[in-house]
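Case study 2.
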Amino acid sequence: FPVVSVFTGVYILIAVGAVMMLVGFLGCYGAIQESQCLLGTFFFFLVILFACEVAAAIWGFMNRDTISKELINFYDSAYIKAVDVSGSPSKDAAINVLNVFHTTLDCCGKGDDTPLFKQVASTLCPRKSPEEFLSQPLSCHDKLIELFSEKLYLIGLAALVVAVIMIFEMIFTMVLCCGIRNSPGVY
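Prediction:
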Protein backbone atom coordinates (compact mmCIF):
# COMPACT_ATOMS: atom_id res chain seq x y z
CA PHE A 1 0.00 0.00 0.00
CA PRO A 2 2.58 2.68 0.91
CA VAL A 3 4.82 1.70 -2.00
CA VAL A 4 1.95 2.42 -4.39
CA SER A 5 1.49 5.92 -2.98
CA VAL A 6 5.23 6.61 -3.19
CA PHE A 7 5.28 5.54 -6.83
CA THR A 8 2.17 7.63 -7.49
CA GLY A 9 3.99 10.62 -6.04
CA VAL A 10 6.99 9.92 -8.26
CA TYR A 11 4.79 9.68 -11.35
CA ILE A 12 3.10 12.96 -10.44
CA LEU A 13 6.50 14.65 -10.06
CA ILE A 14 7.61 13.30 -13.46
CA ALA A 15 4.42 14.60 -15.08
CA VAL A 16 4.84 18.01 -13.40
CA GLY A 17 8.44 18.15 -14.65
CA ALA A 18 7.31 17.41 -18.21
CA VAL A 19 4.60 20.07 -18.03
CA MET A 20 7.10 22.58 -16.61
CA MET A 21 9.47 21.84 -19.50
CA LEU A 22 6.66 22.45 -22.00
CA VAL A 23 5.66 25.66 -20.24
CA GLY A 24 9.25 26.88 -20.18
CA PHE A 25 9.60 26.13 -23.89
CA LEU A 26 6.40 28.08 -24.64
CA GLY A 27 7.66 31.06 -22.65
CA CYS A 28 11.10 31.13 -24.25
CA TYR A 29 9.86 30.54 -27.78
CA GLY A 30 7.05 33.07 -27.33
CA ALA A 31 9.51 35.71 -26.12
CA ILE A 32 11.94 35.03 -28.97
CA GLN A 33 9.22 35.13 -31.62
CA GLU A 34 7.45 38.01 -29.85
CA SER A 35 4.21 36.05 -30.12
CA GLN A 36 1.32 37.27 -28.01
CA CYS A 37 -0.47 33.96 -28.49
CA LEU A 38 2.43 31.88 -27.14
CA LEU A 39 3.03 34.31 -24.28
CA GLY A 40 -0.68 34.22 -23.43
CA THR A 41 -0.56 30.42 -23.41
CA PHE A 42 2.55 30.57 -21.21
CA PHE A 43 0.72 32.90 -18.81
CA PHE A 44 -2.33 30.61 -18.76
CA PHE A 45 -0.19 27.59 -17.88
CA LEU A 46 1.61 29.57 -15.18
CA VAL A 47 -1.72 30.45 -13.58
CA ILE A 48 -2.81 26.79 -13.70
CA LEU A 49 0.52 25.62 -12.22
CA PHE A 50 0.34 28.29 -9.52
CA ALA A 51 -3.17 27.16 -8.57
CA CYS A 52 -2.01 23.52 -8.49
CA GLU A 53 0.95 24.46 -6.30
CA VAL A 54 -1.30 26.28 -3.84
CA ALA A 55 -3.74 23.35 -3.80
CA ALA A 56 -0.90 20.85 -3.26
CA ALA A 57 0.55 22.95 -0.44
CA ILE A 58 -2.81 23.15 1.30
CA TRP A 59 -3.41 19.41 0.82
CA GLY A 60 0.09 18.57 2.07
CA PHE A 61 -0.31 20.75 5.14
CA MET A 62 -3.72 19.28 5.95
CA ASN A 63 -2.45 15.69 5.47
CA ARG A 64 1.03 16.01 6.95
CA ASP A 65 0.30 13.39 9.62
CA THR A 66 -0.94 10.92 7.00
CA ILE A 67 2.11 11.54 4.82
CA SER A 68 4.36 11.02 7.83
CA LYS A 69 2.63 7.74 8.70
CA GLU A 70 2.88 6.50 5.11
CA LEU A 71 6.60 7.26 5.02
CA ILE A 72 7.02 5.39 8.32
CA ASN A 73 5.10 2.43 6.87
CA PHE A 74 7.29 2.54 3.75
CA TYR A 75 10.40 2.62 5.95
CA ASP A 76 9.08 -0.32 7.98
CA SER A 77 8.38 -2.44 4.90
CA ALA A 78 11.89 -1.76 3.58
CA TYR A 79 13.27 -2.49 7.06
CA ILE A 80 11.50 -5.88 7.19
CA LYS A 81 12.82 -6.83 3.74
CA ALA A 82 16.34 -5.66 4.61
CA VAL A 83 16.66 -7.76 7.77
CA ASP A 84 15.03 -10.81 6.15
CA VAL A 85 17.39 -13.73 6.60
CA SER A 86 15.86 -15.77 3.78
CA GLY A 87 17.46 -13.48 1.19
CA SER A 88 14.48 -12.32 -0.84
CA PRO A 89 15.21 -10.87 -4.30
CA SER A 90 14.19 -7.40 -3.15
CA LYS A 91 16.59 -7.40 -0.19
CA ASP A 92 19.28 -5.38 -1.98
CA ALA A 93 16.75 -2.77 -3.08
CA ALA A 94 15.41 -2.55 0.47
CA ILE A 95 18.93 -2.04 1.83
CA ASN A 96 19.46 0.77 -0.69
CA VAL A 97 16.18 2.40 0.40
CA LEU A 98 17.24 2.19 4.04
CA ASN A 99 20.64 3.69 3.19
CA VAL A 100 18.88 6.69 1.64
CA PHE A 101 16.74 7.14 4.75
CA HIS A 102 19.71 6.69 7.09
CA THR A 103 21.96 9.06 5.18
CA THR A 104 19.33 11.75 4.62
CA LEU A 105 17.86 11.74 8.10
CA ASP A 106 21.06 10.75 9.94
CA CYS A 107 19.30 7.95 11.79
CA CYS A 108 19.36 4.19 11.99
CA GLY A 109 16.66 1.73 12.93
CA LYS A 110 13.13 1.95 14.25
CA GLY A 111 14.02 2.56 17.87
CA ASP A 112 12.88 -0.84 19.13
CA ASP A 113 15.60 -2.67 17.27
CA THR A 114 15.73 -6.41 17.65
CA PRO A 115 18.87 -8.49 18.17
CA LEU A 116 18.59 -9.46 14.49
CA PHE A 117 18.88 -5.79 13.49
CA LYS A 118 21.89 -5.33 15.77
CA GLN A 119 23.62 -8.14 13.88
CA VAL A 120 23.01 -6.56 10.47
CA ALA A 121 23.40 -2.95 11.62
CA SER A 122 26.92 -2.70 10.24
CA THR A 123 25.49 -3.46 6.78
CA LEU A 124 22.51 -1.13 7.09
CA CYS A 125 24.27 1.71 8.90
CA PRO A 126 27.83 1.71 7.54
CA ARG A 127 28.58 5.24 8.76
CA LYS A 128 27.95 4.43 12.40
CA SER A 129 29.33 1.94 14.83
CA PRO A 130 26.80 -0.14 16.78
CA GLU A 131 27.50 1.92 19.90
CA GLU A 132 26.78 5.18 18.08
CA PHE A 133 23.38 4.21 16.76
CA LEU A 134 22.39 2.58 20.06
CA SER A 135 23.26 5.77 21.95
CA GLN A 136 21.49 7.96 19.39
CA PRO A 137 18.27 9.26 20.95
CA LEU A 138 16.18 9.57 17.77
CA SER A 139 15.21 6.63 15.59
CA CYS A 140 14.18 7.01 11.96
CA HIS A 141 10.54 6.98 13.04
CA ASP A 142 11.21 9.92 15.35
CA LYS A 143 13.18 11.74 12.66
CA LEU A 144 10.35 11.34 10.12
CA ILE A 145 7.79 12.66 12.60
CA GLU A 146 10.14 15.55 13.45
CA LEU A 147 10.57 16.35 9.75
CA PHE A 148 6.85 16.81 9.22
CA SER A 149 6.08 18.49 12.53
CA GLU A 150 9.04 20.71 13.38
CA LYS A 151 10.67 21.29 10.00
CA LEU A 152 7.51 21.90 8.03
CA TYR A 153 8.36 25.59 7.89
CA LEU A 154 11.35 24.81 5.63
CA ILE A 155 9.12 23.01 3.16
CA GLY A 156 6.65 25.90 3.33
CA LEU A 157 9.45 28.43 2.81
CA ALA A 158 10.65 26.60 -0.31
CA ALA A 159 7.07 26.54 -1.66
CA LEU A 160 6.72 30.25 -0.91
CA VAL A 161 9.92 31.07 -2.82
CA VAL A 162 8.68 29.10 -5.83
CA ALA A 163 5.30 30.87 -5.62
CA VAL A 164 6.96 34.31 -5.56
CA ILE A 165 9.10 33.40 -8.58
CA MET A 166 5.98 32.26 -10.44
CA ILE A 167 4.20 35.53 -9.61
CA PHE A 168 7.14 37.49 -11.03
CA GLU A 169 7.07 35.28 -14.13
CA MET A 170 3.39 36.10 -14.62
CA ILE A 171 4.00 39.84 -14.16
CA PHE A 172 6.91 39.91 -16.59
CA THR A 173 4.96 37.84 -19.12
CA MET A 174 2.09 40.33 -19.08
CA VAL A 175 4.49 43.27 -19.33
CA LEU A 176 6.21 41.65 -22.33
CA CYS A 177 2.86 40.80 -23.92
CA CYS A 178 1.63 44.38 -23.52
CA GLY A 179 4.94 45.72 -24.81
CA ILE A 180 4.66 43.58 -27.94
CA ARG A 181 1.07 44.69 -28.51
CA ASN A 182 1.93 48.39 -28.11
CA SER A 183 5.14 48.35 -30.14
CA PRO A 184 5.00 49.52 -33.75
CA GLY A 185 5.80 46.27 -35.52
CA VAL A 186 7.18 45.86 -39.00
CA TYR A 187 4.41 44.24 -41.05
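The chain is about 80% helix and 0% strand.
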